[in-house]
């Protein structure tokens, strides 16, 4: 079973003297793989135990978020504007509010 990887991973594998088996996904496959990837990366962020590891995993989530935005025909600035609007209406998550 394969998985979606960063664009340069095949080059890194080749530099190690191995030959990766790759293909470019069809649009519908890419959407499904990208959505699965965001769940995978969020799980890795959840499981990280140090601040350094959490930051690295957050960067991976961010990279997938960039791809999702691009897939929607949007930029990261569009995502930030959307987040800002939601924060204005509903608040953010910085307060640690837990609803019972």
Please write out the topology.
Blueprint: H1 9-15, H2 27-47, H3 51-71, H4 76-90
Task: Write structural notes for this entry.
This protein is mainly alpha-helical and 100 residues long. It has a domain of 65 residues. It is 64% helix and 0% strand. Helix 2 packs antiparallel against helix 3. The longest helix has 21 residues. The protein is globular, with a radius of gyration of 17 Å. 2% of the residues are buried. The model has no long low-confidence stretch (mean pLDDT 96).
Number of strands: 0
Main pleated-sheet profile: none
List low-pLDDT spans: none
Count of DSSP H/I helices: 4
Distance between the termini: 40 Å
Task: Give the fraction of residues assigned to helices.
Answer: 55-70%
The succession of helices and strands, N to C, reads: HHHH
Structural Rg: 17 Å
What would the keywords be for this entry?
mainly alpha, 100 residues
Briefly, what is this?
The chain has 4 helices and no strands. It is mainly α and 100 residues long.
């Amino acid at each position: 079973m394969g998985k979606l990887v960063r664009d340069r991973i095949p080059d890194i594998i080749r530099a190690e003297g191995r030959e990766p088996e790759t293909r470019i996904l069809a649009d519908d496959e890419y959407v499904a793989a990208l959505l699965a990837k965001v769940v995978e990366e969020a799980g890795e962020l959840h499981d990280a135990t140090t601040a350094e590891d959490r930051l690295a995993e957050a960067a991976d989530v961010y990279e997938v978020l960039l791809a999702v935005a691009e897939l929607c025909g949007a930029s990261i600035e569009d995502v930030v504007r959307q987040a800002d609007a939601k924060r204005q209406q509903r608040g953010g998550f910085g307060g640690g509010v837990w609803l019972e």
